[in-house]
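tokens incoming
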């Protein structure tokens, strides 16, 4: 017998690169997505929310680097740029020029661009810190009321009802008006900013407290909480390890919605004359001063008004996007 012309050859073994590709494909096929990644992918698809987030980030950077961006002292007078007869800026559009990008104030000639830049510090400081006070108080009291129930829930709920019915703006006006000029090492504007942060935050916590309480009431009977109890977990372990992590999403959402409200409250207080003291720059204070010149120098009123509008709009757009991204019922 003759040997076959071709011997049967063994099947070639896969190379190391092919094995790695197969393993990588298998790993990718079963790879899951975390809640944070899902929320980020949703947020990336919302162009308006991303635009608002970018504007918010820019505002924060502007407030931090105000001395570098302003380029000049916001309290420096430029009386040579003011018409001595009418007290209004010389030139068109409120004295806009290469040295004064947004013009100058009537009567004293202070640079509006520099004062807008420095005014962002007051607005963002009060907005963020008062929201922080409200979030801490609302989260702690809301989760305690929802988890323990009974007389704890009754007391906290009645306090929230009372604060929600209290005239916040009138109380702040009365309180700031009687505050001393020196307190806790602070003086002048520092005292008023400190009082505004505490009072706005104190009257704001019932809003987030109600949300946290309601969420806690619905979660305290869930399976994972019952499992933790059956394993011998204590109350505070359940509060801070089981319930609080699941409350992060609504807390973040309501925080982003509270900040623009607090900024508007600070602007309203400064507009009414009970906010920061001159010469410290504030958007609400600039609007209040501009009332007397809205006919002869309308730009003086338009600039701070637009600054408040853009800031509040950016926070609201970003907050809406975060709410939709963290909504577990949304499409993935």
């Amino acid at each position: 017998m003759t040997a076959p012309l071709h011997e049967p050859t063994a099947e070639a073994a896969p190379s190391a690169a092919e094995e790695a590709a197969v393993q990588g494909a298998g790993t990718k096929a079963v790879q899951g997505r975390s809640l944070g990644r899902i929320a980020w992918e949703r947020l990336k698809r919302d162009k308006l929310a991303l635009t608002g987030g970018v504007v918010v980030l820019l505002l924060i950077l502007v407030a931090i680097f105000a001395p570098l961006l302003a380029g000049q002292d916001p309290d420096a007078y430029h009386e040579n740029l003011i018409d001595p007869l009418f007290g209004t800026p010389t030139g068109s559009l409120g004295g806009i020029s290469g040295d004064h990008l947004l013009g100058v104030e009537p009567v004293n000639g202070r640079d509006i661009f520099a004062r807008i830049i420095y005014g962002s510090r007051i607005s963002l400081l009060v907005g963020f810190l008062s929201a922080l006070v409200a979030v801490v108080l609302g989260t702690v009291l809301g989760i305690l009321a929802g988890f323990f129930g009974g007389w704890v829930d009754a007391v906290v709920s009645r306090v929230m009802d009372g604060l929600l019915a209290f005239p916040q703006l009138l109380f702040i006006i009365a309180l700031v008006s009687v505050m001393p000029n020196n307190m806790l090492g602070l003086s002048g504007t520092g005292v008023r900013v400190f009082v505004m942060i505490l009072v706005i935050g104190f009257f704001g916590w019932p809003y987030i407290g109600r949300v946290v309480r309601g969420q806690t009431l619905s979660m305290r009977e869930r399976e994972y909480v019952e499992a933790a109890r059956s394993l011998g977990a204590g109350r505070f372990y359940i509060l801070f390890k089981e319930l609080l992590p699941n409350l992060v999403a609504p807390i973040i959402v309501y925080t982003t919605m509270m900040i623009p409200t607090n900024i508007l409250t600070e602007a309203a207080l400064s507009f009414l004359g009970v906010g920061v003291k001159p010469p410290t720059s504030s958007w609400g204070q600039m609007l209040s001063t501009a009332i007397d010149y809205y006919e002869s120098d309308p730009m003086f009123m338009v600039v701070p008004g637009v600054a408040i509008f853009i800031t509040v709009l950016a926070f609201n757009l970003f907050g809406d996007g975060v709410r939709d991204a963290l909504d577990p019922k949304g499409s993935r």
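note: Strands lie at 182-183, 186-187.
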